[in-house]
Amino acid sequence: MASVRASESWAYRESTKLQSFSVDQHAMIRFDSSAHTDTVSSHVEIAFTSSPAAHCVNGSVSAFLVDGAGHTAATPAGLTTPFPLRAEYSARTAQFDFTAPRDATPCGSTALAVLQSLRDLWIKPPDTLRVGTTWKDSSSYTVCRDGIPLHAIVQRNFTVSGTTGLDRRMFLTISRASLTAIEGTGTQFGEMVEVKGTGRGQLLYLLDPATGEITTATGTSSLELSLRSKLRTQVVTQSVTTQIIQR
């Protein structure tokens, strides 16, 4: 494959080949100011095909395993793999809107929650890229925490930060910074609870300009949630490391 020099521009073309990825996330969760920290890890295996003309992707999640402290990695109860993936680009936000498998409500679909956590697998660069090119997108969707539906707004900013050589091939390095705002209300243990939160994250992609495919991405994110009821206020902080690898 032809290499790309750092001084060159590149016409981006989204890959239409079948792509397979593994996504590993490790979260450290702290409640209030407690010194105790819970840890949760997840492993996802996913394959999909993009259809640029139809502005959508189709595929499936073949594995989803969760490993908590003291527990063997396993698929959560109520979730069966493989399960299908379908998503369409929203012209309004340039991020995907996912179709919920089987269940219509976000809090009723573990599969949809898994898909929402995989959003960083898909980026939509401009048609022409060079070092220093920037773009941004945003999305608005519902996630759930302990059965409470939360409205999330995520803004992502991308920069082609440079190039790097690997195995005699040239890759574009793309930096992504994100800001997240979350709010929602629901009932928990018979009490009305109000949830608000903010988060931020950094991710570095390696993108193959010859194929239009992401090969790897690594980064970190943090989220702070405040849960308020008549009885108490609880603050939950979460730190996550993410690694995406093309299979």
Tell me what the structure shows.
The chain is an all-beta fold and 247 residues long. The protein has one domain (11-246): Lipovitellin-phosvitin complex, beta-sheet shell regions (Roll), CATH 2.30.230. 3% of the residues lie in helices and 62% in strands. The chain has one helix and 13 strands; from the N terminus they run ββββββαβββββββ. The strands form two sheets. An eleven-stranded antiparallel β-sheet has the order 6-5-4-3-2-13-12-11-10-9-8, with helices on one face. A two-stranded antiparallel ribbon has the order 1-7. It is globular. The relative contact order is 0.17.
Summarize the structure.
The chain has 247 residues and is mainly β. Helices cover 3% and strands 62% of the residues. A hairpin with a 2-residue loop joins strand 8 and strand 9.
Question: What topology emerges from the helices and strands here?
Answer:
Elements: E1 10-11, E2 19-31, E3 37-51, E4 56-68, E5 83-89, E6 96-98, H1 110-116, E7 128-129, E8 134-145, E9 148-166, E10 169-188, E11 191-208, E12 213-228, E13 233-246
Antiparallel strand pairs: 1-7, 2-3, 2-13, 3-4, 4-5, 5-6, 8-9, 9-10, 10-11, 11-12, 12-13
Could you say which structural class the secondary elements and strand pairing correspond to?
mainly beta
Q: Indicate the low-confidence ranges by residue numbers.
A: none
Into how many domains do the coordinates divide? Answer: 1
Order of helices and strands: EEEEEEHEEEEEEE
Mean pLDDT rating = 89
Shape descriptor reads: globular
**Fraction of helical residues:** under 10%
Largest sheet: 11 strands, antiparallel
- Overall number of strands: 13
Spatial extent as radius of gyration: 19 Å
Please report which band the strand proportion falls in: under 5%, 5-15%, 15-25%, 25-35%, 35-45% or over 45%: over 45%
Number of helices: 1
Give me the CATH architecture, please.
Roll
**Do you know the CATH topology?**
Lipovitellin-phosvitin complex, beta-sheet shell regions
Strand order in space, largest sheet: 6-5-4-3-2-13-12-11-10-9-8
Specify the CATH class: Mainly Beta
